[in-house]
Amino acid sequence: MHRDEATKRFHGGGDAFADLIDETPPAQLPTPDTDVPMVSRSVRLPLETYDRVRAAAEARGIGVTTLMRQWIEAGLADLDDSATVSLADVRRALASLSRPTAA
Predict the structure, then answer these.
(1) CB atoms closer than 10 angstroms to residue 53
(2) What is the 3-state secondary structure (H, E, C) of 72-83?
(3) pLDDT class of 14 with cuts at 50, 70, 90
(4) For residue range 50-84, what is the model confidence (pLDDT) as tens digits?
(5) Looking at the 3D structure of the chain, how many domains does it have?
(6) pLDDT confidence of residue 85
(7) Using an 8 Å Cβ cutoff, are 102 and 91 in contact?
(8) Is 90 helix (H, G, I), strand (E, B) or coil?
(9) At residue 103, does pLDDT exceed 60?
(10) What residues make up the domain containing 51?
(11) % of residues, the chain, pLDDT over 90
(12) For residue 61, is it within any domain?
């Protein structure tokens, strides 16, 4: 159905609006990536910063907001001394400890 026709049916009143809703296929919504209730906030970033964040997210195979959420959670953990680190960082640190250093 064309948009103009849908608008006319909507403004026509009666059961036309209900019929219009019934004719519409169900929306395909994305599956949430968490079961935890989330709050949406808007953040203004310089374009260059956003491009860097987007590139970092793509390199990790995750979404931009997921990466931002991880960074915020890690930053908050630093504030309360319960810092989280990636397993890769832990492995690199342990590997560097096992290498003998020149004296």
Answers:
(1) 16
(2) HHHHHHHHCCCC
(3) low
(4) 999 999 999 999 999 999 999 998 888 777 766 66
(5) 1
(6) 73
(7) no
(8) helix
(9) no
(10) 44-80
(11) 27
(12) yes
Residue with tokens 């006319």: 8
CA angle 25, 26, 27 (to 5 degrees): 115
Give yes or no for a contact between 86 and 71, defined as CB atoms under 8 angstroms apart: no
Question: Encoding tokens for residue 63?
Answer: 């979404």
Residue 38 makes CB contacts below 8 A (sequence gap 6+) with 32
Distance (Å, rounded) from C-alpha 3 to C-alpha 37?
A: 35
Residue 3 belongs to some domain of the structure: no
Residue 54 lies in a domain: yes
Tokens for 68, please give them: 């931002």
Average pLDDT, the chain: 80
Whether residue 72 lies inside any domain: the answer is yes
